[in-house]
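U., I forgot to send this yesterday:
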Amino acid sequence: MGFTSRFLRDANPLLACQKTLKTRGLSRDSHEECKRLLEAIPPRSSVRKGFEN
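Result:
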């Protein structure tokens, strides 16, 4: 998997999560939705770890 593919794999869920938080605010429901979106990023990814923290 090349750089561009990994970048898109990581960036798209993060952008979707940011959009959710911007439009719906932070709540239990939006938090759970973001957790589901982040499942597309491998658990060992530094991008995922940083965003979750």
